[in-house]
Amino acid sequence: MHKITEQLKFTRIIPVVVLDDPADAKPLAKALCDGGLPCAEITFRTEAAAECIQIMSKEFPDMLVGAGTVLTAAQADQAMKAGARFIVSPGLNPAMVKHCLKKKYPVFPGINNPTGIETALSMGLTFLKFFPAEVSGGLEMIKALSAPYPQVRFMPTGGINPENLHTYLACDKVTACGGSWMVKEELIKSGNFEEIQKLTQEAVRTIRA
Ligand code: 3PG
C-alpha cells in the first residue's frame, strides 16, 4: 500500500480516463508517458477497461496504471487480473473495499463527509479519494475535515482543472489530484494524442513549479 502512495506523492496527478476502444490504450499511454505523467486511472465505465489496463501495463511496465470506478468485488478482481496496481472507487462500498483489503490490494475509496472518513478509518484506510471534490466544498472542506482527522490524506477528484490544481496541491493534506482535463474523451476519440501530450506537459509544469 505504502509504495503506491509514495509514488503518487511524486506523480501528484492521476489522469482519470474513459476508454471505449482498446486500440487507443497504447497511444494514450505513450502520450501520458512522453508528457511526463506515467500514470493513469482507467475507469470501469466501459467494457474495454480491463483490456486497456492490460495493454498499458504490458506496453509501459514502468507506468502506474490503476483501475477507477470500481463498484463491485467482481470488477476489482477483473482489474487485479488485468494488472491494475491500485483500485479507486467513487464511493465507499464496504464489500468491495474489504475484498481488496483481504487481498492486500491498494484501494482508495471515495468519501466526501465525516461518516465516510470514519468508515474508512475503521477499515484501516487513511488515504482516500475526495469525490466529487469541487461540488463537495473543495479545499475548504478538505481543511475542515482535516481538523478532526489529521491523519487522513486526500486525493481530490472531480472539478480539478489547470486553474485550481496548484491550490489543491499546495495543501499538505493533499497527496495527489485526479482529473480528466488532459485526457478528455473527445481528444481520445479524435486521436488527438498530440494535444493530450501537450496538456499533460502543461500539467506537469504546474506540479513542478
Ligand atoms: C470522474 O468521475 O470523471 C473524475 O472524477 C474526473 O472528474 P473531472 O472530469 O471533473 O476531472
Quick gist of this model?
With about 210 residues, the protein is α/β, with parallel strands linked by helices. The protein has helices spanning about 1-10, 25-35, 50-60, 75-80, 95-100, 115-120, 140-145, 165-170, 185-190, 195-209, and strands spanning about 15, 40-45, 65-70, 85-90, 105-110, 125-130, 155, 175-180.
Bound molecules: 3-phosphoglyceric acid
Task: Tell me the strand percentage band.
Answer: 15-25%
Strands in their spatial order, largest beta sheet: 3-2-1-8
Number of helices: 10
Using the CA coordinates, give the radius of gyration: 16 Å
Q: Which whole number gives the mean pLDDT?
A: 97
* Biggest pleated sheet: 4 strands, parallel
Q: Globular, elongated, flat, extended or rod-shaped: what is the shape?
A: globular
The run of helices and strands is: HEHEHEHEHEHEHEHEHH
Overall SS class? alpha/beta
**Model regions low in confidence, pLDDT < 50 over at least 5 residues:** none
Question: How many E strands?
Answer: 8
In angstroms, what separates the terminal alpha carbons? 28 Å
> Percent helix among the residues?
40-55%
Question: Which properties best describe this structure?
Answer:
single chain, 209 residues, alpha/beta, 4-stranded parallel beta sheet, 10 helices, 8 strands, 16% strand, binds 3-phosphoglyceric acid
